[in-house]
């Protein structure tokens, strides 16, 4: 992870829903459970969450419905005011911003994509995409040019004069994505952007999304309830339950070392070989002598299946992107993962 | 009361104390009534003695007087009336019917208006609406009622936009500030049940006689639904759209202007439709304070029993109503269309251009052919006298006459008069007890308390007997309407085609201004009690039938299929599956029928009744604002009592059935 300061940094963030959340939180003894808080008449949407998102990183927040993942991301953008704790965005305490500064922040730094698209039904594709630009007062000509640019980027060229209702779900979400990118945000929030789509379209949109991300390199907070989607996209995954983060780690480590029983339940049915990358399973070199052709550390064990079966070496050298040897993979361990332990 | 109780099926198993309370209340009421019949009840228990009735009307008069003169409200309202409002009305009157006022351009030739109506109809809903729009104008012109119709329309085109703007602003305020909504809600409920005569007198006093008063009464009458629809629409905007707006960096004003209002477009336009329809209904009724136009002519024609002309005017009003309703409804569902790139501007704007061309074309043609400008006294095709003869000779046919006369005799002698006398014989406290018992049985404690308070106020107003006569007309008409409307609805709901036809007929009938319903009543039964009940009856049957069909049609198909697979016969399916599930919806229709009946029974005062409406109508001639208000409030309170009880029942039932 790069050494620059985090883009988003949340410290002990609480979001309670109820009659007087701040007061209740101030008087509450620490360590109170979700159920106990509920018995007191409050719902803990976000419960004591501390998390950081680095520049250019894609953090996926995963959890079942009601786990507080959408609430957390709305706290990051201050669509919800938090009840306790602190959220810093680019070194700025967002709770300290007044209305005008908050609007400026959103106009210049943040983009968000919604599960049911949140398109304005009375505006054409072009006008929807240009909407954030219009709100910040850009003139018609510039905003049209910029909107056309992002429309081309998401592959909707030729549809710019259509109304949302004339588009399929996948196309509508492309409009949502284009709109969120129009202002060239640094931070990109995506709230279950593909959940409302059919499985095939979802897959296609995920590929499209990975393509865009490779091109744009934004800082991303992505929400999903689909564990496969999280594994597919994430640099890091935060798994939430009852408003709290159960575990926040890379996909490899979540699959290999689930921190709690709840997380283990998700990973149980997962084909680990498809998730775990060679470098995730590798042991450090520690002076071990390795021989022969190195393998790509970013390949999954599944990708390496044929090689693992055919290669006779006990230990395989692992190389990083630059080709430097970074570790060593025990072949038997990899085969165990691939085929299940004997 | 008892007749209503037996019609409404018993609510779910009532707890023991509830049953005891009910039995106690009814027992006491019965005992009081028996005592009265036996002649042993002291007089002060039968009716409140005059001495204890507070002089509410006098008190209200003082209050109004204070507000009007001491606070100087009248100067403000008179200023509005004589200033901006009169200016707007004069302008529209000049353009539409050629009143000699600024800008002295009118009248617009009828053919030009017809052409524009056709273009607007085409833009909103294709050829059918174009034909309807043009057809209505052509009919009105040819039948020689153009000027009258335009007098009515000139008030409408001013009142409807003003009601829309005020309603929209108040609706936004009610949505934005919860406290404002809470303050506004009870006022809206009262306003929506207040008889229209109560709107008219203050309008006359504060805004001077004539079009201004008519416009003001019309505006106030049309505002409540606009407020409700606006608030409803704004509340329904999906929170993702709202969040998308916020994340796009909208300021508060931008949120409202670019996100909320456009996203609530459908509900706001439904509000517009209601505003237009209520304005039309009210403008017609302002005939009672001497507003010229279709309503005044209809009133005059009916008064002198000229059935042919009444019928023709009725047709014009109905056509106008249907046209306005269909067009504004088409506007609700109309979605913006996109044009492919490179479409020339005159294709993009072809509808406004066409409208302009048609307008200019007909205005020019009217210079050449005056007949296209206005149709004179001798030129029109009115067949008033001939129709009059046809109707009257048809009604004089032995068979027809026998039936109507027998009906009149039977209803009057065997049903209505005994029922009325029975209701009047019940002592006041016993009557209130019965109403409270009914409310308690139906809706629980809250409606019962409100019922007790409301009816006690009615008793204390000093107009008890007249209130009971009003109630009697309402109950008998609604009871008869139930006997007709519900079986009709059940029959219609048996087939898809008939459901659609009946729903269309009901929807159309609901757009007619209520005044229209008096025409057939007077035609068939002349001027008496039966005609009153009959006009209320047809007015009230419409919602009953409508909601019965709707309730039965919206029973979830899984449930009827489950019933069929359980081997139930058609009858069993209807009785044990469809009707119980449709009942909450039907209750809404029943409630509407009662509200409509209260509304209509007051208008029917025109025929000559002895109820509150008659007294109300009399106040219009003078300046007794206090009395006018007391009478109006009595109607409103009685209507609200039923409204609360039935709504509480329907909502509880819906929740219990998991239908909402």
> What is the highest CATH level, the class of the largest domain in chain A?
Alpha Beta
Class from helix and strand fractions of chain B: mainly alpha
Task: Label the overall shape of chain B.
Answer: globular
* CATH homologous superfamily title of the largest domain in chain A: P-loop containing nucleotide triphosphate hydrolases
| Strand residue content of chain A | 15-25%
CATH architecture title of the largest domain in chain A: 3-Layer(aba) Sandwich
Query: Reading side by side through the largest sheet of chain A, how are the strands ordered?
Result: 6-7-8-3-9-10
Shape of chain A: globular
Largest interface, C-beta closer than 8 angstroms, per-chain residues:
A-B, 37 and 24 residues
Helix and strand topology:
The complex is a heterodimer of chains A (342) and B (660).
Chain A: E1 8-17, H1 21-27, H2 34-39, E2 43-53, E3 58-62, H3 69-76, E4 84-89, E5 92-93, H4 99-109, E6 110-113, H5 125-135, H6 140-153, H7 169-181, E7 187-191, H8 199-216, E8 219-224, H9 227-233, E9 236-241, E10 244-249, H10 251-256, H11 261-268, H12 272-275, H13 278-281, E11 283-284, E12 295-296, H14 305-310, E13 315-319, E14 325-330, H15 331-339
Parallel strand pairs in A: 3-8, 3-9, 6-7, 7-8, 12-13
Antiparallel strand pairs in A: 1-2, 1-4, 4-5, 9-10, 11-14, 13-14
Helix pairs in contact in A: 5-6, 5-7, 6-7
Chain B: H1 2-7, H2 16-38, H3 43-46, H4 56-70, H5 73-97, H6 110-142, H7 146-176, H8 178-193, H9 196-207, H10 211-236, H11 239-247, H12 252-263, H13 265-285, H14 294-303, H15 307-333, H16 345-348, H17 350-368, H18 384-395, H19 398-425, H20 428-443, H21 445-460, H22 464-492, H23 496-511, H24 518-525, H25 529-553, H26 557-565, H27 570-603, H28 612-620, H29 625-657
Helix pairs in contact in B: 2-20, 4-29, 5-7, 5-10, 6-15, 6-17, 7-8, 7-10, 7-13, 8-29, 9-10, 9-28, 9-29, 10-13, 11-12, 13-15, 14-15, 15-18, 19-22, 20-21, 20-29, 21-29, 22-25, 22-27, 23-25, 24-25, 25-27, 26-27, 27-29, 28-29
């Amino acid at each position: 992870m790069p050494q620059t300061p985090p883009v988003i940094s949340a410290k002990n963030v609480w979001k309670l829903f109820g009659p007087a959340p701040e007061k209740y939180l101030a008087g509450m003894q620490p360590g109170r459970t979700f159920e106990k808080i509920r018995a007191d008449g409050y719902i803990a949407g976000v419960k004591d969450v501390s998390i950081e998102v680095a520049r250019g990183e894609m953090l996926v927040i995963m959890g079942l419905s009601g786990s507080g993942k959408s609430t957390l991301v709305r706290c990051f953008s201050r669509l919800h005011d938090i009840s306790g704790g602190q959220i810093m965005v680019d070194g700025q305490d967002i709770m300290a911003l007044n209305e005008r500064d908050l609007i400026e922040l959103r106009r210049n730094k943040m983009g968000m994509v919604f599960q049911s698209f949140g398109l304005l039904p009375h505006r054409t594709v072009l006008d929807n995409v240009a909407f954030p630009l219009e709100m910040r007062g850009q003139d018609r000509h510039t905003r049209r040019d910029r909107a056309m640019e992002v429309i081309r980027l998401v592959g909707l060229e030729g549809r710019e004069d259509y109304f949302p209702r004339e588009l399929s779900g996948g196309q509508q979400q492309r409009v949502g994505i284009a709109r969120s990118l129009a202002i060239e945000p640094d931070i990109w929030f995506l709230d279950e952007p593909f959940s409302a789509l059919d499985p095939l379209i979802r897959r296609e949109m995920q590929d499209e999304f990975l393509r865009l991300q490779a091109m744009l390199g934004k800082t991303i907070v992505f929400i999903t309830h689909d564990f496969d989607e999280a594994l597919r996209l994430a640099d890091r995954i935060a798994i939430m339950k009852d408003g709290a983060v159960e575990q926040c780690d890379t996909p490899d480590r979540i699959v290999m070392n689930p921190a709690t029983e709840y997380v283990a339940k998700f990973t149980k049915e997962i084909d680990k070989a498809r998730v775990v990358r060679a470098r995730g399973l590798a042991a450090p070199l520690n002076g071990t002598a390795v021989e022969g052709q190195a393998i790509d550390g970013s390949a999954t064990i599944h990708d390496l299946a044929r090689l693992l079966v055919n290669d006779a070496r006990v230990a395989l050298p692992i190389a990083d992107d630059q080709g430097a040897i970074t570790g060593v993979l025990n072949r038997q361990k990899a085969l165990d993962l691939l085929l299940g332990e004997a | 009361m008892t007749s209503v109780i037996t019609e409404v099926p018993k609510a779910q198993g009532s707890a023991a104390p509830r049953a005891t309370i009910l039995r106690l209340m009814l027992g006491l009421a019965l005992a009081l009534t028996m005592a009265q019949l036996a002649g042993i009840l002291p007089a002060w228990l039968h009716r409140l003695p005059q001495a204890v009735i507070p002089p509410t009307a006098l008190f209200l008069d003082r209050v109004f007087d204070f507000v009007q003169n001491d606070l100087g409200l009248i100067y403000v309202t008179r200023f509005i009336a004589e200033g901006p409002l009169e200016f707007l009305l004069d302008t529209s009157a000049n353009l539409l019917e050629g009143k000699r006022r600024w800008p002295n351009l009118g009248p617009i030739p009828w053919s030009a208006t017809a052409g524009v109506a056709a273009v607007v109809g085409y833009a909103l809903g294709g050829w059918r609406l174009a034909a309807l729009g043009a057809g209505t104008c052509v009919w009105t012109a040819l039948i020689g009622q153009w000027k009258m119709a335009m007098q009515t329309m000139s008030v409408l085109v001013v009142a409807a936009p003003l009601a829309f703007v005020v309603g929209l602003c108040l609706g936004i305020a009610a949505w934005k500030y919860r406290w404002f909504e809470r303050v506004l809600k009870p006022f809206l409920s009262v306003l929506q049940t207040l008889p229209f005569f109560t709107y008219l007198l203050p309008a006359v006093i504060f805004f001077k006689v004539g079009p201004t008063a008519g416009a003001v009464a019309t505006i106030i009458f049309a505002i409540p639904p606009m407020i409700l629809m606006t608030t409803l629409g704004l509340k329904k905007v999906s929170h993702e759209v709202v969040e998308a707006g916020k994340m796009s960096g909208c300021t508060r004003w931008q949120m409202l202007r670019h996100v909320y209002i456009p996203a609530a477009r459908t509900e706001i336009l439904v509000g517009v439709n209601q505003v237009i329809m209520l304005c039309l209904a009210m403008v017609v009724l302002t005939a009672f304070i001497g507003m010229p136009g279709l309503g005044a002519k209809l009133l005059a024609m009916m008064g002198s029993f000229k059935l042919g002309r009444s019928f023709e005017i009725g047709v014009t009003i109905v056509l106008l109503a249907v046209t306005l309703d269909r067009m504004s409804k088409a506007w609700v569902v109309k979605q913006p269309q996109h044009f492919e790139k490179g479409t020339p501007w005159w294709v993009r704007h072809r509808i406004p251009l066409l409208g302009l061309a048609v307008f200019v074309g007909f205005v020019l043609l009217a210079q050449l052919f005056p007949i296209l400008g206005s149709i004179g006294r001798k030129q029109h095709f009115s067949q008033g006298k001939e129709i009059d003869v046809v109707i009257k000779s048809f009604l004089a046919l032995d068979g027809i006459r026998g039936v109507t006369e027998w009906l009149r005799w039977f209803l009057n002698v065997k049903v209505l008069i005994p029922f009325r006398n029975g209701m009047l014989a019940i002592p006041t406290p016993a009557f209130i007890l019965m109403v409270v018992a009914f409310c308690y049985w139906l809706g629980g404690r809250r409606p019962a308390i409100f019922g007790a308070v409301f009816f006690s106020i009615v008793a204390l107003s000093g107009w008890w007997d007249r209130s009971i006569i009003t109630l009697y007309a309402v109950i008998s008409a609604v009871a008869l309407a139930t006997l007709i409307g519900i079986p009709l609805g059940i029959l219609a709901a048996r087939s898809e085609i008939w459901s659609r036809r009946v729903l269309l007929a009901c929807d159309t009938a609901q757009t007619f201004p209520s005044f229209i319903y008096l025409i057939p009543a007077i035609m068939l039964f002349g001027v008496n009690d039966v005609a009153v009940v009959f006009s209320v009856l047809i007015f009230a049957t419409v919602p009953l039938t409508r909601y019965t069909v709707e309730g039965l049609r919206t029973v979830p198909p899984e449930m009827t299929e489950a019933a069929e697979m359980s081997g139930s016969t058609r009858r069993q399916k209807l009785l044990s599956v469809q009707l119980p599930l449709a009942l909450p919806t039907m209750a809404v229709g029943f409630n509407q029928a009662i509200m409509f009946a209260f509304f209509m029974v007051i208008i029917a005062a025109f025929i000559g009744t002895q109820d509150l409406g008659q007294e109300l109508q009399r106040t219009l001639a003078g300046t007794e604002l206090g009395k006018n208000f007391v009478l109006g409030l009595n109607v409103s309170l009685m209507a609200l009592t039923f409204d609360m009880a039935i709504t509480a029942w329907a909502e509880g039932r819906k929740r219990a059935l998991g239908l909402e």
